[in-house]
Amino acid sequence: MAGRCQGADAPLLAELMPWSVPGLRLGRGWVRSAHPEVLAARWQRLADAAPDARAALFGASRARTLDSAVGQLPGQSGSTGTLARDPGPCPPPVRIRHGAFDRLWLLPDQRVLDAARPELWRVADEAQLFACVQPHAPGPAVAFSAELPDGHRERGLGRIHPLYRRPGGREPNLAPGLTEYLGAVLGTGVTAEALLAWIAAAGRPADGAPGARTGEEVPIPLPASAGTWAEGVALGRRILWLHTFGLRGAPEAGSPHAGSPDAGGGRPRMPGGRRPFVRERVQGLPDAIGHDADTESLLLGSGRIAPVPRSVWEFQAAGQPVLAGWFARRTADPGARPGSLEALGLSAWPQQSTADLVELATVLALLAELRPAQAALLRPERGPWISAADLASAAVLPAPAWTRRPASVLSHQEEGPGGQFALL
């Protein structure tokens, strides 16, 4: 029976979304960059190198060497000959999500990735949404992305929960019977997208509160009140919209969380008068990023972006400052060996990076404004709440073992090693 539900009584994200995949194990740092042109230059240097030099540049591991014979990643093109014999042209870099909010680029080639997780690539499309646990506070308990996430964060790898088990938004990755049970309790239709929106709104318990997350275990309180559910879904849609930089989950018109007219769809924007602009352009490659609280300015060497509230500068994910990490991944790696592929980068700050920083600052500012609403949503009086025991009594939990395994997806041919195709 629904009742008072503290964090210890709430079902876990891993119970509600049973299928999850470990983060990508890259094996070498040069396969990922903030700039696709850098990846193309690194690939060309690798392909042009003599055999001995190519081996040194590549960086062999137990999983991958220049002689590794592996197939294409699902949905990607490129050579399947060994790198020692035929590197082929540079595979077109693809946008990925690194950590909670950093959008980077990756070389989608299994020959250079130790563990690329093909099962994720098979379901990554325009209908998919990914949820990634961020276990260390402060920061959101779960991050959401439309791009395929690499599962990396400041303190190791996390698990990735796709919303759908099949391409095209088919077969939600939810415990069987969960949406039907919630619909019966709430007296309204419950979709997979609405449930993910609720998770986005409710998956951040106050730091230090009972039931706060530990490791990969994120409690998700579920309401038995239709009013609380509707409010949380509306709030969660806006959170999803912000986490995905406007690609998914736009708030419905008239929602209390739709924000300004500019924020109803498309890219997130601050209201007029509060939008950050480039006040002074960045020259060269800045060696540090900082914040001036008095002028609400982000400082990048000679560059300045304002207004940027202090909440953006202090915003953390997985217990680490978001902007500091974002900037570090766009500067020279002090640990990169001279002459290595990791050391190959840009000699000037690209204008696109400044535009990306303005967009990121906007997203973080708008998310910070939603924290009070998230905290209010989880007050005990907003119940009654549905506990994990309630779901077990209704035979929703535990989810069957098959739901924790990937679905069989054969939507297109996947070229195997040496250009061979499997006979199915």
List the helices and strands and how they pair.
Blueprint: H1 13-16, E1 21-22, E2 32-33, H2 36-48, H3 51-58, E3 94-98, E4 102-106, H4 118-121, E5 130-133, E6 142-145, E7 148-149, E8 152-153, E9 156-157, E10 159-162, E11 164-166, E12 170-172, H5 178-186, H6 192-202, E13 222-223, H7 226-243, E14 277-280, E15 289-292, E16 297-300, E17 303-306, H8 310-313, E18 316-317, E19 320-321, H9 322-328, H10 351-369, H11 371-377, E20 385-386, H12 388-393
Parallel strand pairs: 3-7
Antiparallel strand pairs: 1-10, 2-4, 3-4, 5-6, 5-10, 8-9, 11-12, 13-20, 14-17, 15-16, 16-17, 18-19
Helix pairs in contact: 2-3, 6-7
Mind explaining what this structure looks like?
With 424 residues, this protein is an alpha+beta fold. The chain folds into 2 domains: 7-268 and 374-419, no CATH class; 277-369, no CATH class. It has 12 helices and 20 strands. The protein has helices at residues 13-16, 36-48, 51-58, 118-121, 178-186, 192-202, 226-243, 310-313, 322-328, 351-369, 371-377, 388-393; strands at residues 21-22, 32-33, 94-98, 102-106, 130-133, 142-145, 148-149, 152-153, 156-157, 159-162, 164-166, 170-172, 222-223, 277-280, 289-292, 297-300, 303-306, 316-317, 320-321, 385-386. Helix 2 (36-48) runs antiparallel to helix 3 and helix 6 packs across helix 7. The longest helix is centred in the last third of the chain and has 19 residues, at 351-369. The N and C termini lie far apart (48 Å). The model is unreliable at 205-213 and 259-264 (pLDDT under 50).
